[in-house]
Write a structure and sequence with these properties.
Serine Threonine Protein Phosphatase 5, Tetratricopeptide repeat, 18 helices, elongated, mainly alpha
Length: 383
Amino acid sequence: MLTRRTWVVWAVLVLMAWGCGEVERAFSQESSSSGESASAGTAWDHFLQAYRLTRQGELTLERLDRIIQLCRRGLQLPGTAEQKRYGRRLLAWAYNRRGQWYAQAQPPQEDKALADFEQAVQLDPTRWKYFHNRGVSFAKRGQWNKALADFDQVLRLHPPREARAKCHFNRGEVFFALGRYEQAVQEYTQALRLQPPRAQVLNARGAAWVLLGQAERALQDLEQAIALEPNLYDARVNRGNALAELGRYGEAVREFRVALKLEPDRAAAYASLAWLLATCQQPQWRDPKQALAYAQRAVKLGGEEPQFLTVLAAAWARSGKPQQAAQLQRQALLLAQKRKLPQSVLNRYRRYLQAYQSGQPWPPQENADGKSSAGSAESSKER
């Protein structure tokens, strides 16, 4: 099972905020251009109060609420065009910062975050960071096309080199989620060209290479990622998957066990190990009892997600319980359809279900001539 630290499913996306230093520079510019002093009850008086709050220690939710309130009131009062323009910029900044606060809360308040990023973009569509943050929110909600549109706009606004790299990485994550792995590889490659090699990006590209059937290229990326971060759980699991694709099953099992020791409370390594022990094309590596135990552990840790239910179904089928396997696989397929997973995943789930309904494990038993009775054997590269 390929694993990545992701938004809901797939990536660590960085929420970026316009820093207080930028507020101060903008305020200084607007103050000098306005040529007016503040008067109590004026628009500028409200903007001054809001600005001062940005400089008074930690930006708590209550303080951000107050800044927004002051700016909104100020925009309703008399003032020059320059003052109102500054007020809108400061208000957009505050909405973006509050959206970031909501997005990073525990638990995240995604609806409120998206609403604030929407406000920020509408008030000041010149700031690439606002589009980036809104794109992240769209991605977390599975609104992939909207996320891509925002990331495209980020690139059109010519952000700094590091920000372009992050944007290409996030575009790669969206394409990965859509099952468009070749485009994902292109975006990850762009990200790697714009910044020094980073383990997270190398791991993501390695995972995409595995799904494209290029396990050797995947190993190159994943081994480089591990060299940079030896304890990177995701890269360890994905390296195990790549090794399994190459038929290096003993090395794959060892890699999965390394991952289990690194983070014993995460599901992916249990699932990958269970899948290998249940479906390996070389019978000597199969262990139905262990496969079932690991698969059940994966479901317990990761929840009844389609990929974990699919692994558990394979383990039950290998344990001689095809009816139970078919029931679980049918449940996994329905969940995958509901979540609009890529068509390639849905087709694969249907093939698994067909095998279990016919009373066979996956991969199906071979005929006397050594050929599979239901197509070629599937691997661990995607469940």
